[in-house]
Amino acid sequence: MAVRTLKLKIPKQKPFMKHIFALSVAMLPLLGFAAGQGAHTLDIRADRMGAEIQPTMYGLFFEDINYGADGGLYAEMVKNRSFEFPQSLMGWQSFGKVEVKDQGGPFDRNPHYVSLSGAGHRSKYTGLENEGFFGYALKAGEEYRLTFYARLAAGELGKLRFELVDPASGGETVVLAKADIKVKSGEWTRYEALLTPERSVERGRLRVFLRKPDECTVDLEHVSLFPVDTWKGRPGGLRRDLAQALADINPGVFRFPGGCIVEGTEIPDRYRWKTTVGPVENRPLNINRWQFEFPHRFYPDYYQSGGLGFYEYFLLSEDMGAAPLPVLNVGMVCQYQNPDPSAHVAVDSLDEYIQDAIDLVEFANGDTTTVWGGLRADMGHPAPFGLKYLAIGNEQWGPEYVERLEPFVKALRKACPDITIIGSSGPSPDGDKFDYLWPEMRRLDVDLVDEHYYCNEEWFRNSATRYDNYPRRGPKVFAGEYACHGKGRKY
Length: 491
What we know:
Layout: E1 5-11, H1 15-23, E2 39-45, E3 60-61, E4 92-95, E5 97-101, E6 113-117, E7 126-130, E8 136-138, E9 144-154, E10 158-169, E11 172-183, E12 189-195, E13 201-210, E14 217-227, H2 240-247, E15 253-256, E16 286-287, E17 303-304, H3 310-320, E18 323-328, H4 351-365, H5 371-378, E19 389-392, H6 399-415, E20 420-424, H7 432-444, E21 448-455, H8 457-462, E22 476-484
Helix pairs in contact: 4-5
Protein backbone atom coordinates (compact mmCIF):
# COMPACT_ATOMS: atom_id res chain seq x y z
CA MET A 1 0.00 0.00 0.00
CA ALA A 2 1.35 3.41 -0.92
CA VAL A 3 1.95 5.68 2.04
CA ARG A 4 1.52 9.38 1.60
CA THR A 5 3.39 11.84 3.79
CA LEU A 6 2.16 15.38 4.19
CA LYS A 7 4.87 17.90 5.06
CA LEU A 8 3.85 21.20 6.60
CA LYS A 9 6.26 24.03 7.28
CA ILE A 10 5.21 25.74 10.48
CA PRO A 11 6.68 29.15 11.37
CA LYS A 12 8.41 29.38 14.70
CA GLN A 13 5.80 30.27 17.29
CA LYS A 14 5.55 31.56 20.77
CA PRO A 15 5.09 28.76 23.33
CA PHE A 16 1.35 29.25 23.71
CA MET A 17 0.93 29.02 19.93
CA LYS A 18 2.51 25.56 19.94
CA HIS A 19 -0.22 24.32 22.23
CA ILE A 20 -2.89 25.77 20.01
CA PHE A 21 -1.46 23.98 16.98
CA ALA A 22 -1.33 20.72 18.87
CA LEU A 23 -5.10 20.91 19.30
CA SER A 24 -6.05 21.19 15.65
CA VAL A 25 -4.29 21.39 12.32
CA ALA A 26 -7.54 22.89 11.04
CA MET A 27 -6.73 26.03 13.02
CA LEU A 28 -3.60 26.79 10.99
CA PRO A 29 -5.09 29.90 9.32
CA LEU A 30 -5.84 31.32 12.76
CA LEU A 31 -2.35 31.16 14.18
CA GLY A 32 -1.17 34.48 12.74
CA PHE A 33 2.12 33.34 11.19
CA ALA A 34 4.65 36.15 10.62
CA ALA A 35 6.98 36.31 7.66
CA GLY A 36 10.64 35.83 8.32
CA GLN A 37 10.28 33.63 11.40
CA GLY A 38 12.07 30.30 11.68
CA ALA A 39 10.09 27.27 10.52
CA HIS A 40 9.46 23.70 11.68
CA THR A 41 8.52 20.72 9.53
CA LEU A 42 5.60 18.52 10.57
CA ASP A 43 5.31 15.07 9.00
CA ILE A 44 1.81 13.52 8.99
CA ARG A 45 1.83 9.78 8.29
CA ALA A 46 -1.53 8.43 7.13
CA ASP A 47 -0.41 4.84 7.82
CA ARG A 48 0.31 5.37 11.51
CA MET A 49 -2.28 5.37 14.24
CA GLY A 50 -2.43 8.25 16.65
CA ALA A 51 -3.74 8.08 20.17
CA GLU A 52 -5.93 5.01 20.69
CA ILE A 53 -9.65 5.67 21.00
CA GLN A 54 -11.44 2.94 22.88
CA PRO A 55 -14.30 1.38 20.85
CA THR A 56 -16.82 2.04 23.63
CA MET A 57 -16.28 5.79 23.36
CA TYR A 58 -19.64 6.12 21.60
CA GLY A 59 -22.70 3.95 21.19
CA LEU A 60 -26.47 3.70 21.26
CA PHE A 61 -29.13 3.97 23.94
CA PHE A 62 -32.44 2.25 23.24
CA GLU A 63 -35.72 2.62 25.10
CA ASP A 64 -39.27 1.58 24.24
CA ILE A 65 -40.60 5.14 24.06
CA ASN A 66 -42.83 6.47 21.27
CA TYR A 67 -43.45 2.87 20.20
CA GLY A 68 -39.74 2.27 19.79
CA ALA A 69 -39.95 -1.50 20.46
CA ASP A 70 -43.51 -2.79 20.08
CA GLY A 71 -44.67 -1.08 16.92
CA GLY A 72 -41.10 -0.10 16.03
CA LEU A 73 -37.85 -2.07 16.07
CA TYR A 74 -39.67 -5.28 17.03
CA ALA A 75 -41.24 -6.38 13.76
CA GLU A 76 -44.49 -7.79 15.21
CA MET A 77 -47.42 -6.19 13.39
CA VAL A 78 -50.32 -7.41 15.57
CA LYS A 79 -51.28 -5.25 18.52
CA ASN A 80 -52.40 -7.20 21.61
CA ARG A 81 -51.60 -10.51 19.94
CA SER A 82 -52.33 -12.57 23.06
CA PHE A 83 -55.43 -10.67 24.23
CA GLU A 84 -53.67 -9.73 27.46
CA PHE A 85 -54.32 -5.98 27.52
CA PRO A 86 -56.47 -5.01 30.53
CA GLN A 87 -59.25 -4.48 28.00
CA SER A 88 -58.80 -7.86 26.37
CA LEU A 89 -59.95 -6.82 22.89
CA MET A 90 -58.14 -3.48 22.76
CA GLY A 91 -56.70 -3.20 19.26
CA TRP A 92 -59.32 -5.62 17.92
CA GLN A 93 -62.80 -5.14 16.53
CA SER A 94 -65.04 -8.15 17.06
CA PHE A 95 -68.17 -9.24 15.23
CA GLY A 96 -70.49 -12.17 15.69
CA LYS A 97 -70.06 -14.54 18.63
CA VAL A 98 -66.67 -13.77 20.19
CA GLU A 99 -65.93 -14.60 23.82
CA VAL A 100 -62.73 -13.91 25.79
CA LYS A 101 -61.71 -16.75 28.13
CA ASP A 102 -58.87 -17.31 30.57
CA GLN A 103 -59.19 -20.98 31.55
CA GLY A 104 -57.52 -23.82 29.67
CA GLY A 105 -55.24 -21.73 27.46
CA PRO A 106 -51.85 -22.98 26.26
CA PHE A 107 -49.72 -20.41 28.12
CA ASP A 108 -49.91 -19.99 31.87
CA ARG A 109 -48.45 -16.45 31.99
CA ASN A 110 -50.67 -15.32 29.10
CA PRO A 111 -53.93 -17.07 29.99
CA HIS A 112 -56.40 -15.18 27.78
CA TYR A 113 -57.67 -16.39 24.42
CA VAL A 114 -60.77 -15.88 22.28
CA SER A 115 -63.45 -18.38 21.40
CA LEU A 116 -65.15 -17.98 18.01
CA SER A 117 -68.56 -19.62 17.53
CA GLY A 118 -70.89 -19.82 14.56
CA ALA A 119 -73.18 -16.78 14.26
CA GLY A 120 -76.22 -18.97 13.60
CA HIS A 121 -77.07 -17.81 10.09
CA ARG A 122 -75.33 -18.34 6.78
CA SER A 123 -75.17 -14.61 6.09
CA LYS A 124 -73.64 -13.76 9.46
CA TYR A 125 -69.96 -14.01 10.36
CA THR A 126 -67.92 -14.28 13.52
CA GLY A 127 -64.42 -12.90 13.65
CA LEU A 128 -61.92 -10.20 14.55
CA GLU A 129 -60.06 -7.38 12.86
CA ASN A 130 -56.78 -6.02 14.21
CA GLU A 131 -55.74 -2.40 13.68
CA GLY A 132 -52.02 -2.97 14.25
CA PHE A 133 -49.75 -0.16 15.37
CA PHE A 134 -51.32 2.78 13.53
CA GLY A 135 -52.18 0.38 10.74
CA TYR A 136 -50.25 -2.32 8.85
CA ALA A 137 -47.63 -0.96 6.45
CA LEU A 138 -47.65 -3.68 3.80
CA LYS A 139 -45.45 -3.94 0.70
CA ALA A 140 -46.63 -5.49 -2.52
CA GLY A 141 -45.01 -8.83 -3.32
CA GLU A 142 -43.36 -9.26 0.09
CA GLU A 143 -44.12 -12.28 2.26
CA TYR A 144 -45.58 -12.01 5.75
CA ARG A 145 -45.51 -14.95 8.13
CA LEU A 146 -48.78 -15.53 9.99
CA THR A 147 -48.68 -17.76 13.08
CA PHE A 148 -51.31 -18.57 15.67
CA TYR A 149 -52.45 -21.25 18.10
CA ALA A 150 -55.89 -22.81 17.77
CA ARG A 151 -57.96 -25.76 18.89
CA LEU A 152 -61.37 -27.14 17.94
CA ALA A 153 -63.62 -26.65 20.96
CA ALA A 154 -66.85 -27.92 19.35
CA GLY A 155 -67.83 -29.61 16.11
CA GLU A 156 -65.91 -31.87 13.76
CA LEU A 157 -64.11 -29.22 11.72
CA GLY A 158 -63.36 -25.54 12.01
CA LYS A 159 -62.33 -23.30 9.15
CA LEU A 160 -60.57 -19.99 9.67
CA ARG A 161 -59.85 -17.39 7.02
CA PHE A 162 -57.12 -14.82 7.56
CA GLU A 163 -56.98 -11.76 5.32
CA LEU A 164 -54.78 -8.74 4.89
CA VAL A 165 -57.14 -5.97 3.90
CA ASP A 166 -57.14 -2.32 2.87
CA PRO A 167 -60.10 -0.68 4.61
CA ALA A 168 -59.58 2.72 3.00
CA SER A 169 -60.18 2.08 -0.70
CA GLY A 170 -63.05 4.45 -1.46
CA GLY A 171 -65.09 3.14 1.45
CA GLU A 172 -64.85 -0.47 0.29
CA THR A 173 -62.61 -3.01 2.00
CA VAL A 174 -60.24 -4.69 -0.45
CA VAL A 175 -58.67 -8.07 0.29
CA LEU A 176 -54.93 -7.98 -0.48
CA ALA A 177 -54.04 -11.55 0.56
CA LYS A 178 -55.80 -14.46 2.24
CA ALA A 179 -55.26 -17.92 3.67
CA ASP A 180 -57.84 -20.59 4.61
CA ILE A 181 -56.80 -22.93 7.42
CA LYS A 182 -58.60 -26.00 8.75
CA VAL A 183 -58.62 -26.68 12.49
CA LYS A 184 -59.27 -30.34 13.25
CA SER A 185 -57.55 -31.03 16.57
CA GLY A 186 -59.03 -30.51 20.00
CA GLU A 187 -55.51 -29.86 21.30
CA TRP A 188 -53.77 -26.52 21.09
CA THR A 189 -51.75 -26.55 17.85
CA ARG A 190 -49.49 -23.99 16.22
CA TYR A 191 -50.40 -23.02 12.66
CA GLU A 192 -48.46 -21.03 10.08
CA ALA A 193 -49.19 -19.48 6.70
CA LEU A 194 -47.54 -16.99 4.35
CA LEU A 195 -49.49 -13.99 3.08
CA THR A 196 -48.31 -11.90 0.12
CA PRO A 197 -50.27 -8.68 -0.52
CA GLU A 198 -50.86 -7.83 -4.15
CA ARG A 199 -50.26 -4.13 -3.60
CA SER A 200 -48.76 -1.80 -1.02
CA VAL A 201 -50.80 0.01 1.62
CA GLU A 202 -49.82 2.21 4.55
CA ARG A 203 -52.70 1.44 6.91
CA GLY A 204 -53.87 -2.08 6.22
CA ARG A 205 -55.46 -4.45 8.71
CA LEU A 206 -55.50 -8.14 9.59
CA ARG A 207 -58.88 -9.85 9.61
CA VAL A 208 -59.84 -13.35 10.72
CA PHE A 209 -63.29 -14.86 10.60
CA LEU A 210 -64.84 -18.23 11.20
CA ARG A 211 -66.03 -20.00 8.09
CA LYS A 212 -68.72 -22.66 7.89
CA PRO A 213 -70.01 -24.85 9.45
CA ASP A 214 -71.96 -22.74 11.91
CA GLU A 215 -72.05 -25.41 14.62
CA CYS A 216 -68.29 -25.33 15.26
CA THR A 217 -66.32 -23.36 17.86
CA VAL A 218 -62.64 -22.55 17.46
CA ASP A 219 -60.41 -21.18 20.21
CA LEU A 220 -57.68 -18.79 19.08
CA GLU A 221 -54.53 -17.53 20.85
CA HIS A 222 -51.32 -15.57 20.13
CA VAL A 223 -52.13 -14.28 16.65
CA SER A 224 -48.90 -12.96 15.16
CA LEU A 225 -47.73 -11.46 11.85
CA PHE A 226 -44.11 -10.69 10.91
CA PRO A 227 -42.44 -9.81 7.64
CA VAL A 228 -40.39 -12.77 6.46
CA ASP A 229 -37.55 -10.38 5.62
CA THR A 230 -36.44 -9.55 9.16
CA TRP A 231 -33.01 -8.55 10.46
CA LYS A 232 -30.64 -11.48 9.87
CA GLY A 233 -33.64 -13.46 8.58
CA ARG A 234 -34.71 -14.48 12.10
CA PRO A 235 -38.39 -15.51 12.33
CA GLY A 236 -40.15 -13.29 14.84
CA GLY A 237 -37.21 -10.91 14.76
CA LEU A 238 -36.48 -7.25 14.24
CA ARG A 239 -37.33 -4.89 11.41
CA ARG A 240 -34.49 -5.18 8.95
CA ASP A 241 -34.42 -1.52 7.94
CA LEU A 242 -34.37 -0.14 11.47
CA ALA A 243 -31.86 -2.67 12.82
CA GLN A 244 -29.59 -2.02 9.84
CA ALA A 245 -29.77 1.73 10.48
CA LEU A 246 -28.57 1.11 14.04
CA ALA A 247 -25.81 -1.24 12.91
CA ASP A 248 -24.59 1.27 10.32
CA ILE A 249 -23.68 3.63 13.16
CA ASN A 250 -21.09 1.03 14.28
CA PRO A 251 -21.77 1.56 17.97
CA GLY A 252 -19.20 0.48 20.50
CA VAL A 253 -21.74 0.05 23.29
CA PHE A 254 -25.49 -0.62 23.36
CA ARG A 255 -27.48 0.46 26.44
CA PHE A 256 -30.90 -1.12 27.03
CA PRO A 257 -33.83 -1.41 27.85
CA GLY A 258 -33.90 2.21 29.17
CA GLY A 259 -33.97 4.62 30.86
CA CYS A 260 -36.96 5.37 32.91
CA ILE A 261 -38.62 2.25 31.59
CA VAL A 262 -36.69 0.08 34.05
CA GLU A 263 -38.60 1.81 36.83
CA GLY A 264 -42.31 1.72 37.49
CA THR A 265 -44.80 4.08 39.02
CA GLU A 266 -45.30 1.19 41.40
CA ILE A 267 -42.94 -1.69 42.04
CA PRO A 268 -45.12 -4.34 40.29
CA ASP A 269 -44.87 -2.26 37.09
CA ARG A 270 -41.07 -2.29 36.98
CA TYR A 271 -39.18 -3.86 34.07
CA ARG A 272 -38.12 -7.42 34.95
CA TRP A 273 -35.64 -9.02 32.59
CA LYS A 274 -36.58 -12.57 33.60
CA THR A 275 -40.08 -12.15 32.14
CA THR A 276 -38.58 -11.23 28.75
CA VAL A 277 -36.71 -14.48 28.08
CA GLY A 278 -37.92 -17.93 27.13
CA PRO A 279 -40.70 -18.60 24.59
CA VAL A 280 -42.24 -15.34 23.40
CA GLU A 281 -45.74 -16.83 23.63
CA ASN A 282 -45.37 -17.06 27.40
CA ARG A 283 -43.75 -13.72 28.16
CA PRO A 284 -46.24 -11.76 30.27
CA LEU A 285 -47.48 -8.31 29.34
CA ASN A 286 -46.23 -5.25 31.21
CA ILE A 287 -47.50 -1.69 31.17
CA ASN A 288 -45.29 0.83 29.41
CA ARG A 289 -44.59 3.73 31.76
CA TRP A 290 -44.54 6.11 28.77
CA GLN A 291 -48.23 5.37 28.27
CA PHE A 292 -49.25 8.14 30.65
CA GLU A 293 -46.18 10.33 31.21
CA PHE A 294 -47.52 13.29 29.23
CA PRO A 295 -51.24 14.17 28.90
CA HIS A 296 -50.62 15.60 25.43
CA ARG A 297 -49.08 12.27 24.37
CA PHE A 298 -51.32 9.79 26.16
CA TYR A 299 -51.50 6.30 24.64
CA PRO A 300 -53.78 4.03 26.69
CA ASP A 301 -52.91 1.08 24.42
CA TYR A 302 -49.13 1.27 25.02
CA TYR A 303 -47.90 -1.95 26.62
CA GLN A 304 -44.76 -4.09 26.47
CA SER A 305 -45.23 -7.54 24.98
CA GLY A 306 -41.72 -8.61 26.01
CA GLY A 307 -41.12 -9.93 22.49
CA LEU A 308 -38.10 -7.66 22.26
CA GLY A 309 -36.52 -8.95 25.45
CA PHE A 310 -33.08 -9.30 26.97
CA TYR A 311 -32.13 -12.23 24.75
CA GLU A 312 -32.99 -10.19 21.65
CA TYR A 313 -31.13 -7.15 23.03
CA PHE A 314 -28.02 -9.27 23.57
CA LEU A 315 -28.33 -10.69 20.06
CA LEU A 316 -28.62 -7.23 18.56
CA SER A 317 -25.58 -6.07 20.52
CA GLU A 318 -23.62 -9.01 19.17
CA ASP A 319 -24.83 -8.40 15.61
CA MET A 320 -23.69 -4.78 15.77
CA GLY A 321 -20.38 -5.60 17.42
CA ALA A 322 -21.36 -3.48 20.41
CA ALA A 323 -20.71 -4.17 24.08
CA PRO A 324 -24.08 -4.85 25.77
CA LEU A 325 -24.91 -2.56 28.68
CA PRO A 326 -28.11 -3.58 30.50
CA VAL A 327 -29.77 -1.33 33.10
CA LEU A 328 -31.50 -3.01 36.04
CA ASN A 329 -33.96 -1.82 38.65
CA VAL A 330 -32.35 -0.96 41.99
CA GLY A 331 -35.51 -1.54 44.00
CA MET A 332 -36.95 1.93 43.44
CA VAL A 333 -39.93 3.36 41.59
CA CYS A 334 -39.69 6.38 39.32
CA GLN A 335 -39.06 9.30 41.66
CA TYR A 336 -40.52 11.74 39.15
CA GLN A 337 -43.85 9.98 38.93
CA ASN A 338 -44.07 8.68 42.47
CA PRO A 339 -42.27 10.79 45.09
CA ASP A 340 -43.58 8.67 47.98
CA PRO A 341 -40.49 7.22 49.76
CA SER A 342 -42.54 4.28 51.01
CA ALA A 343 -43.11 3.12 47.42
CA HIS A 344 -39.53 1.82 47.19
CA VAL A 345 -38.46 -1.66 48.21
CA ALA A 346 -37.12 -1.77 51.76
CA VAL A 347 -33.35 -2.03 51.95
CA ASP A 348 -33.57 -5.30 53.88
CA SER A 349 -35.84 -6.77 51.17
CA LEU A 350 -33.54 -6.35 48.17
CA ASP A 351 -32.35 -9.96 47.93
CA GLU A 352 -34.59 -10.74 44.94
CA TYR A 353 -33.37 -7.69 43.04
CA ILE A 354 -29.72 -8.37 43.77
CA GLN A 355 -30.15 -12.00 42.75
CA ASP A 356 -31.74 -10.81 39.48
CA ALA A 357 -28.52 -8.89 38.75
CA ILE A 358 -26.31 -11.88 39.52
CA ASP A 359 -28.55 -14.19 37.48
CA LEU A 360 -28.40 -11.81 34.53
CA VAL A 361 -24.62 -12.14 34.46
CA GLU A 362 -25.09 -15.91 34.47
CA PHE A 363 -27.64 -15.68 31.65
CA ALA A 364 -25.23 -13.63 29.55
CA ASN A 365 -21.93 -15.29 30.45
CA GLY A 366 -22.64 -18.52 32.28
CA ASP A 367 -21.74 -22.03 31.21
CA THR A 368 -24.51 -24.03 29.57
CA THR A 369 -24.60 -26.28 32.63
CA THR A 370 -25.86 -23.39 34.78
CA VAL A 371 -29.56 -22.61 35.14
CA TRP A 372 -29.56 -19.31 33.28
CA GLY A 373 -26.72 -20.13 30.92
CA GLY A 374 -28.65 -23.28 30.04
CA LEU A 375 -31.73 -21.20 29.21
CA ARG A 376 -29.62 -19.01 26.92
CA ALA A 377 -28.40 -22.16 25.17
CA ASP A 378 -31.95 -23.52 24.87
CA MET A 379 -32.95 -20.26 23.20
CA GLY A 380 -30.29 -20.83 20.54
CA HIS A 381 -27.06 -19.24 21.80
CA PRO A 382 -24.77 -21.70 23.63
CA ALA A 383 -21.81 -19.32 23.48
CA PRO A 384 -21.67 -16.58 26.14
CA PHE A 385 -22.54 -13.02 25.16
CA GLY A 386 -19.50 -11.56 26.93
CA LEU A 387 -21.28 -9.11 29.24
CA LYS A 388 -18.86 -6.65 30.86
CA TYR A 389 -21.00 -3.69 31.94
CA LEU A 390 -24.00 -3.50 34.24
CA ALA A 391 -25.86 -0.36 35.32
CA ILE A 392 -27.83 -0.46 38.56
CA GLY A 393 -30.58 2.15 38.65
CA ASN A 394 -31.35 5.00 36.29
CA GLU A 395 -31.50 8.71 37.22
CA GLN A 396 -32.31 7.93 40.86
CA TRP A 397 -31.12 10.32 43.53
CA GLY A 398 -30.80 10.96 47.23
CA PRO A 399 -29.72 8.76 50.16
CA GLU A 400 -32.51 6.33 49.27
CA TYR A 401 -30.65 5.45 46.06
CA VAL A 402 -27.23 5.21 47.66
CA GLU A 403 -28.35 2.94 50.48
CA ARG A 404 -29.93 0.56 47.97
CA LEU A 405 -27.06 0.62 45.52
CA GLU A 406 -24.49 -0.25 48.20
CA PRO A 407 -25.61 -3.88 48.78
CA PHE A 408 -25.74 -4.40 45.00
CA VAL A 409 -22.12 -3.29 44.69
CA LYS A 410 -20.98 -5.53 47.52
CA ALA A 411 -22.81 -8.59 46.17
CA LEU A 412 -21.68 -8.08 42.58
CA ARG A 413 -18.04 -7.54 43.59
CA LYS A 414 -18.16 -10.90 45.35
CA ALA A 415 -20.19 -12.94 42.83
CA CYS A 416 -19.18 -11.24 39.57
CA PRO A 417 -15.80 -9.55 40.12
CA ASP A 418 -15.18 -9.01 36.40
CA ILE A 419 -18.31 -6.93 35.85
CA THR A 420 -17.95 -3.15 35.49
CA ILE A 421 -20.58 -1.53 37.72
CA ILE A 422 -22.24 1.72 36.68
CA GLY A 423 -23.90 4.02 39.20
CA SER A 424 -25.88 7.20 38.64
CA SER A 425 -25.30 10.90 39.24
CA GLY A 426 -29.02 11.63 39.01
CA PRO A 427 -31.20 13.23 36.35
CA SER A 428 -29.18 16.42 35.80
CA PRO A 429 -25.55 17.34 35.04
CA ASP A 430 -25.36 19.71 38.01
CA GLY A 431 -27.27 20.85 41.09
CA ASP A 432 -27.83 19.46 44.58
CA LYS A 433 -28.61 15.88 43.49
CA PHE A 434 -25.53 15.75 41.27
CA ASP A 435 -23.25 17.26 43.91
CA TYR A 436 -24.44 14.77 46.52
CA LEU A 437 -24.20 11.66 44.34
CA TRP A 438 -20.71 11.98 42.87
CA PRO A 439 -18.89 11.76 46.25
CA GLU A 440 -21.14 8.85 47.19
CA MET A 441 -20.32 7.02 43.97
CA ARG A 442 -16.63 7.44 44.79
CA ARG A 443 -17.23 6.15 48.29
CA LEU A 444 -19.01 3.07 46.94
CA ASP A 445 -16.18 2.65 44.42
CA VAL A 446 -18.38 2.06 41.38
CA ASP A 447 -16.45 1.86 38.13
CA LEU A 448 -18.45 4.36 36.10
CA VAL A 449 -20.92 7.13 36.92
CA ASP A 450 -23.77 7.72 34.49
CA GLU A 451 -24.23 11.42 33.71
CA HIS A 452 -27.28 12.65 31.76
CA TYR A 453 -27.59 15.96 29.96
CA TYR A 454 -30.86 17.41 28.66
CA CYS A 455 -29.83 21.00 28.10
CA ASN A 456 -29.90 23.86 25.62
CA GLU A 457 -27.24 24.85 23.10
CA GLU A 458 -25.59 27.35 25.40
CA TRP A 459 -24.99 24.73 28.09
CA PHE A 460 -23.29 22.36 25.65
CA ARG A 461 -21.15 25.17 24.24
CA ASN A 462 -20.09 26.28 27.70
CA SER A 463 -19.34 22.70 28.78
CA ALA A 464 -16.58 22.02 26.23
CA THR A 465 -14.01 21.92 29.05
CA ARG A 466 -16.31 20.19 31.54
CA TYR A 467 -14.01 17.25 32.24
CA ASP A 468 -10.67 19.02 32.24
CA ASN A 469 -10.61 19.22 36.03
CA TYR A 470 -12.33 15.93 36.91
CA PRO A 471 -10.20 13.65 39.12
CA ARG A 472 -8.19 11.14 37.14
CA ARG A 473 -8.56 8.54 39.87
CA GLY A 474 -11.73 6.83 40.96
CA PRO A 475 -14.87 6.30 38.87
CA LYS A 476 -14.86 7.32 35.23
CA VAL A 477 -17.74 9.04 33.45
CA PHE A 478 -20.34 7.26 31.35
CA ALA A 479 -22.50 9.69 29.36
CA GLY A 480 -25.61 7.55 29.15
CA GLU A 481 -28.14 10.07 27.80
CA TYR A 482 -27.99 13.51 26.26
CA ALA A 483 -30.11 15.77 24.09
CA CYS A 484 -29.82 19.39 23.00
CA HIS A 485 -33.28 20.78 23.54
CA GLY A 486 -32.87 24.35 22.49
CA LYS A 487 -33.76 27.38 24.55
CA GLY A 488 -37.13 27.23 26.20
CA ARG A 489 -37.81 23.63 25.22
CA LYS A 490 -38.71 21.08 27.85
CA TYR A 491 -38.05 17.35 28.06
